[in-house]
Write a structure and sequence with these properties.
The protein is of the alpha+beta class and 158 residues long. The chain has 2 domains: 53 residues, Beta Barrel (Thrombin, subunit H); 95 residues, Up-down Bundle (Methane Monooxygenase Hydroxylase, Chain G, domain 1), CATH 1.20.58. Helix content is 51%, strand content 22%. The chain has 6 helices and 5 strands. It has a 5-stranded antiparallel sheet with strand order 4-3-2-1-5. A hairpin with a 3-residue loop joins strand 1 and strand 2. Helix 2 packs parallel to helix 4 and helix 3 runs antiparallel to helix 4. The chain is globular.
């Protein structure tokens, strides 16, 4: 169970800070929700507490985790399926997993492929989404601004 002030990651959506825990009645049933403020886009999300395990909420990584993410971004990209559909599904599974290190692999691999061969519209959208999720977590861990983290990623992906 998380508490107010915790920095957590909501897979597929990004990282945020729990602002409050509220009880709401929906369809005649009282449920408790985490109210998560997302630093990028200044959005608020309500997450049912009873679904936390299924959703895969987790605390943000620490500084050591950041170093590992940055080293993954610098590694040579791992072999990707040449079949667009399989590659897309594999990358989507990694993003949905909520594992930041797999997310970093997706960002690295798709960025490299974009530079070398270009990406389809679907994969471009996936890369943008994966980058935003990664940036949102790094912004909270490093207590930094979005632009600074974007520049840091560019540096490591170059």
């Amino acid at each position: 169970m998380f508490k107010i002030g915790d920095k957590i990651v909501y897979p597929m959506h990004g990282a945020g800070i729990i602002e409050s825990i509220e009880e709401k009645e929906i369809l005649g049933e009282m449920r408790r929700y985490y109210v998560l403020r997302m630093p990028i886009g200044d959005m608020k999300v309500m997450i049912p507490i009873m679904n936390v395990q299924d959703i895969g909420l987790r605390k943000v990584i620490d500084e050591e985790g950041v170093l590992r993410v940055l080293s993954i971004l610098q590694e040579k990209d791992s072999p990707m399926n040449t079949n667009w559909n399989r590659r897309y599904r594999n990358n989507m599974e990694k993003i949905k997993s909520g594992n930041v290190f797999e997310l970093a692999e997706v960002v690295r691999n798709l960025s490299t492929r974009d530079k070398d061969k270009g990406l389809s519209t679907g994969e471009k959208k996936m890369l943008d989404n994966a980058r935003q999720i990664l940036i949102s977590e790094l912004v909270l861990v490093k207590d930094s601004k979005e632009d600074k983290i974007k520049n840091l990623l560019e540096e490591y992906l170059a």
